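Archive entry. Fields below.
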Amino acid sequence: MTKNIIEIKRLVKKFGDFTALDGVDLNVYEGEVFGLLGPNGAGKTTIINVVLGLLKQTSGSVYVNGLDNTKHIEEIKRAIGMMTQETVVENELTARENLELFAKLYQVDNDKIPKRVEYALEEADLVKFGDVRAGTFSGGMQRRLELVKSMIHNPPILILDEPTTGLDVQNRTELWKRIRALNKEGITVILTTQYLEEADALCDRIAIIDHGKIKAIGTVSELKALVGTGNVLEIIAKPDDIDDIVKLLKKYDIDAVVKSDKITASLGKDSSRMFTKITNAIEDKKIQVLAISAHLPTLDDVFIKLTGGQIRDSTGENASAMTRARLMKKR
Amino acid sequence: MGLLNDTMTLYKREMLIFKANLRTNLIRSIMFPLIILLIFGSLGSSVKGVPVDVVNYASNPISVQFINTLQQQNVIAVKGITTETQALNDLSTGKVDVVVVILPGFPASSSESTPSLYVYYSNNYVNLGSSLQQIGSAAAIYGARSNVALQQGFVLGNNGVPPQSTISLNPTYGAQGNYSTFLAGGIIGMVVVFGTMFGGGMSIITDRQLGNLKAFLITPVERTSLVLSKMLSGTTQALISGIMLIGIIYLFGIQIAMGAVGVLWILLLSAVAAFGFSGITTTLASRVNKIEVYAIAAQTITMPLWFASGAFSPTSALPSWLQPLSVVDPLTYMTVGIRDIMINGYYPLATMGLDFAILIGFAIVATIISIKVFSTRVG
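PREDICTED_STRUCTURE:
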C-alpha cells in the first residue's frame, strides 16, 4: 500500500477577486517523482507556496507526513527541501558559507554541520570551489549549489520549482540525473515544470494543472491514453486545402482538430494501415501537404486535448499568479 | 534559544556581506559627513575685512591708539567712527557686522563690574569669522575690560579683562563652542541614521528582489530573527561609521571635551539611537518593494528628523513650526547628549537619564512595530 506523503484537499487560494487555486485535490505518494505540469500562471508555484506556509490558504487542507500545514509548519519546513524557481545563492558568501548558513537555519546539529557541508560540496562537484564566492559561479554551478543547499538537512521530501528553466541542455541533463539519483535514495520529489519532455522523462505521476484546477492526474501512460488509442496523425497544409483534408478524414470516421494550418487526429487501433490509406487518398486527390506524420501520443497531445491549447502559448502570460493578482488589485 | 541562534546566524551572514563590500561600505559611510565637515565645519574661517563701526566716548590718546590698532587688523575693517545711534543703525541695516563702543575713561572703567568696552555684533556667525577674537586681543593690549553683546543688547560675560575664550564667547554654540565642534556632534547623529538606512532596510529590499528572503522563509527560521538580524546589522554598520567619524573629527582638530569616556558615551547613545532607527528603516522596507521608493521615503523621513534634531543649528533657532518636531524627535536627545559630552565636557545625570529613557523607549517601540509589520507584510 503506498503511503500519501502529501495530501491536498479542496485547496482554494484567492488573491482578492482572483482565484489562483480553485479546489485542488491531489496526493503525492511516498518515494515517487510527482510532476505538476502547467503553463505559466497555472497555479503550480502557488500550490507549493501554500504547502510551505509562505501563503495562507483561503480554504481546504494540506497535510505533509500527516501534519496539518496550518498547525505544524515548522516541522513541515524541516521535512521539505526546496529549490526555488530563480537561482538564489548568497553571492557574497563562499559556497561553504552558503551551505553552513542554511545548515544552521535548518537546525542541523552543530557537530554534524562540517560533515554535511563537505558531503554536499562533493555531491555538487564543487569541492575545489568551496572557498570561492558563489557570486562568481556560472549558472550551472549555482544551480548545483542550490540543489545541495536545499538538501543540506537531509529532508525526505524535495520540491523543485521549475528546476531547469533557463538551463542549457547539458546542465539540464546533469540535473535530471541528480534528481533521479536522489529519488533512488528514497526521497520523494515534487517538481513543477512547463516542459512536457521534462515531466515525461522524470515523473512517475503527473498532475496537469491549468487556471488553478487539476485537469488530469495519473501516470504518464495513463495520461497518454486519454488522447485515445493508436498514434496521432499530424498534417500541415496550405489553408485552402485544410477543409478538403478534414472532409477526407471524415470519410474514414476520423475527427480532426484544426489549429490554423495544422490538423491533428487520433488514428485509432490499426494506426499504420490507416496512415497508409490516408496518405494514398491525399495523393489520389492531388492535395498538396507540407508535412504529414504519425507519432505516439505525447504529453503535448494530452495537454492540447485537456486544455484546448498548447502548453507554451495556452495563456500567453508570463506573469505568475501572484503578480497577476497584484496587477488586478491595482486596477 | 531558537530565536537567539537564528538571529546570530543571520547576523553573521549580514556581516559577511558587509565585509565582502568593506571598502565601498566604508567609503560610502564616510564621504558625506566628511564633505559636510569640510565645507560647513570651517565656515567663516577665511573671512577678511568684516565691516566695523567704532563709537568713541573716551576720546583720549589711548582710545585713539586702540582704534589705530583695530585699523591694522586684517580680519576687521573699520568703516567709520561715529555716534552710537548711527552705528547701531548701520548694524541693524547690515552695513556693518560689528560695533565697538569705547566707554568713557578707557581703558579704565567706572567700577569692577562694568566693562570699558562694549561690542555689539550681528547674530551671523558666518560673516564674523574671527573678528571678535581680534577685537578682544586688541583691547587686551590696553588692559581694557570688554564685553560682547548681541545686537539685541544681550549682555554677556562681565568679568574683567577677558581672555580670548571669553571674547569669543558665543551664546549660540555654548561656552567652549565653535561651529565645527557643534556641527561634528550633529553629524555623528546623521551618520547613525544614514548607516541604518543602508544597513538595515536596504538589504531587506535587495534580499527580496533577489529571492534570498524567500530562501530564508522556506526554512524553519523565525521571522522575528530575520528582523532582529537586520536591525543589529544596521546598528553595527552605523556604529562602525560613527567610530570612523570620531577618528576624522580628531584629525580635524575638534576636541571631545569629555575625553575617552565621552567617546564611549557617544557610542552608547549612537547604538541605542541606531537600533531604533534600524527599526524604522526595516519597517519601511517591509512595506516598500522598490529600492527607489525606499530611498525617497527613507530620506523624507530621516532628513527632517535630522534637521529638527539641531544638527546644523540649535533647536532654539529652528522655525517655530519645527519646534514641536524637534521635541518628539528621538534624534534631538541623542544630539543634545553628544553636545553635552563634546562641548561642555560633562553629562549631567538628569539629562543623561532623560536622553537614554527616550532613546531606549524609542528603540523598543520601533522594534515592536518593525517585527509586526515585517511578519504581516513579508511572505
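CURATOR_NOTE: Chain A has twelve helices and 14 strands.
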